[in-house]
Amino acid sequence: MKTTHNPIKTPLILASKSPRRKYLLEQAGLEFSVIPSDIDENEITVTEPHHYVRYLAETKAKDIANTYPDNWVLGADTIVLIDGMILGKPLSKDDAWDMLKRLSGRTHVVYTGFCLTCKAKDRLISQTVQTQVLFKELSDHEINWYIHTPEPFDKAGAYAIQGLGTFLVKRIEGSYTNVVGLPVCEVIEVLLEEGVIGQIVGEAGYSDPCQ
């Protein structure tokens, strides 16, 4: 059982070790602390994709909120879905090859669930955001080159739209940042609605990414 701690310096806590989510929040001018949740995702039963990612996000956020009840906690989870199959992080080059071959020339869906909660205020808001992503037709040579870079192996679906993998993507419909790992517009909207945004703006000031 976790011990309750006093509030940490920043009102917002990111319950994720993802460098991409951290970068996106920093780009939005927000101040926050990073305290990753250590829940075992393998123990979570897979349900409908949009419910699954939201439930995982809620579980991660509540895990950290139990320790820091006076802070706002942000949890998130992202999956790639094609043919009814969830593509997680590849376990090997062969696994990455198979994923990219499956995605080649086709449209898949990226789901990100996010949850913002403050236990002391008895507030929990969660949403699922989806983006349609169309890949170009990939040659075997292109796939082979890409899987011999380090990039695919800590990414759902074996690619990073914001990195070298940008060449894979022909078109998207929906939120770009959702594909990176966090739907920033929707997160900011919740922070604004809850009156949190004024407490977590960095020295550089805040620019609404939805505008």
How would you describe this protein?
- By secondary structure, the protein is α/β, with parallel strands linked by helices.
- It has one domain (12-199): Maf protein (Alpha-Beta Complex), CATH 3.90.950.10.
- It contains six helices and seven strands; from the N terminus they run E-H-E-H-E-E-H-E-E-H-E-H-H.
- Helix 3 (93-103) packs across helix 4.
- The protein is elongated.
- The relative contact order is 0.18.
Provide a compact summary of the structure:
This protein has 211 residues and is α/β, with parallel strands linked by helices. It is built from six helices and seven strands; from the N terminus they run E-H-E-H-E-E-H-E-E-H-E-H-H. It has a single domain, classed as Alpha-Beta Complex (Maf protein).
Strand content: 15-25%
Largest sheet: 7 strands, mixed
Distance N terminus to C terminus? 43 Å
Structural class: alpha/beta
Structural Rg: 18 Å
Question: What sort of overall outline do the alpha carbons produce when their principal axes are compared?
Answer: elongated
CATH architecture tag: Alpha-Beta Complex
Structural key phrases:
211 residues; alpha/beta; Maf protein; seven-stranded mixed beta sheet; 6 helices; 7 strands; 23% strand
